[in-house]
Amino acid sequence: MIWLIGCKGMLGTEIARQLSQNKIDYTGTDIDVDITNPKALAAFAFGKDISYIINCSAYTAVDKAESDADFAKKLNEDGPRNIATLANQIHAKMIHISTDYVFDGAGNSPYTEDMPIAPIGVYGKTKAAGEAAVKQNLSEHYIIRTAWLYGWAGKNFVYTMIKAMNTHEAVKVVNDQKGTPTFAGDLANVIIQIIKKDDVPYGIYHCTDLGEISWWDFTNEIKRQAFEFGLLSNNTCQVNPCATSEYPTPAKRPVYSVLSKEKIQKTLGITLPFWKDSLSVFLKSELFDKGRIE
Ligand SMILES: NC(=O)c1ccc[n+]([C@@H]2O[C@H](COP(=O)([O-])OP(=O)(O)OC[C@H]3O[C@@H](n4cnc5c(N)ncnc54)[C@H](OP(=O)(O)O)[C@@H]3O)[C@@H](O)[C@H]2O)c1
Which atom of ligand 1 is closest in space to residue 79's alpha carbon? Predict the structure, then answer.
């Protein structure tokens, strides 16, 4: 059986949907089994035959983390340590989700899994510490770093921008941070493939959609496609580029955080989807939540 932790979050909801679709036996928990409480984790696992634990729970509020470092550490470092320790005891493998924010973003070519990490904010630092805690406590681990995630469940950039473009005459978006948007459906599909294969070498993998763009590029394409698919009442909203310096946020973000997908594609023998194609899948689906863009 698979134990999906964080099953009510944006990625967790999508993984749960795909596990069901693939008829893979799983059980899901979220805040009801607190990852910061080792006893609660052990009590839940006791008596169950768990082969994989997928950890999607995390402290994901990047800006809020700057003034809430202790709590971010509890969820992003102590929680994964507790899960990995338990996984070791019950002989389960662990798939842990991490982030491009473990890199400082000073590079200008895609980050590979073996490149040194150097997080620049509390969120990235606590996620990096979570990776280390998993590695130290469990050899049978997969750490999957992803980036710029959006999915049908949960608040995300795509819903936010369509709503903004439906209600404003102009939006300003940074054009000097580069990365790759990732549809949660694509990442969930990769995780399902790892479980189905059951012989993928342990270690760190990078997984995002394909391509390299700025948030401003992303917004322009969201506008174009959302209008084409009838999700924008008109396409007159101006999408104005701005520099990160014009849009100060509590947390510093990596300027360049494109991840190399070579290792995961080679290992699984797949080609990941191009970000624009996945955006279409997301927008055209009946699972798209129109309530979030009104
Ligand atoms: N979102 C992105 O753009 C992005 C980018 C790169 C990497 N990632 C990584 O991808 C993973 C999934 O992200 P996501 O956006 O799907 O996250 P999310 O929507 O914030 O989901 C996290 C889930 O964990 C739950 N949770 C919080 N505290 C918990 C606790 N103590 N015990 C058990 N569950 C708890 C949350 O419940 P509440 O909502 O009730 O707190 C929520 O349902 C995370 O590891 C994140 O760091 C995300």
Answer: 31
- Spell out the alpha helix ranges (H) of the chain: 10-21, 38-45, 69-73, 79-90, 122-137, 157-167, 184-197, 215-228, 262-268, 275-284
**Ligand 1, atom 37: closest residue by C-alpha:** 31
Q: Which of 2, 15, 44, 67 is nearest to 185 (CA)?
A: 15
- Give me 140's structure tokens: 């049978």
Question: Of all protein residues, whose CA lies closest to atom 4 belonging to ligand 1?
Answer: 149
pTM: 0.97
pLDDT tens, the chain, 294 aa long: 999 999 999 999 999 999 999 999 999 999 999 999 999 999 999 999 999 999 999 999 999 999 999 999 999 999 999 999 999 999 999 999 999 999 999 999 999 999 999 999 999 999 999 999 999 999 999 999 999 999 999 999 999 999 999 999 999 999 999 999 999 999 999 999 999 999 999 999 999 999 999 999 999 999 999 999 999 988 899 999 999 999 889 999 999 999 999 999 999 999 999 999 999 999 999 999 999 998
Looking at ligand 1, which atom is closest to the CA of residue 8? 43
Tokens linked to 127: 């996620």
Neighbours of 14 (CB within 10 A): 25
* Separation of alpha carbons 194 and 192, rounded Å: 5
Closest residue (by CA) to atom 12 of ligand 1? 56
Q: Which residues line ligand 1 (CB under 6 A)?
A: 6, 8-12, 30-31, 34-36, 56-58, 60, 75, 97, 99, 127, 146-149, 154
Nearest-CA residue for ligand 1 atom 32 is 34
Compute, in angstroms, the gap from residue 130 CA to the centroid of ligand 1. 13
Active site residues: 123
Q: Are 241 and 200 in contact (CB under 8 A)?
A: no
Of 38, 153, 112, the closest CA to residue 265 belongs to 112
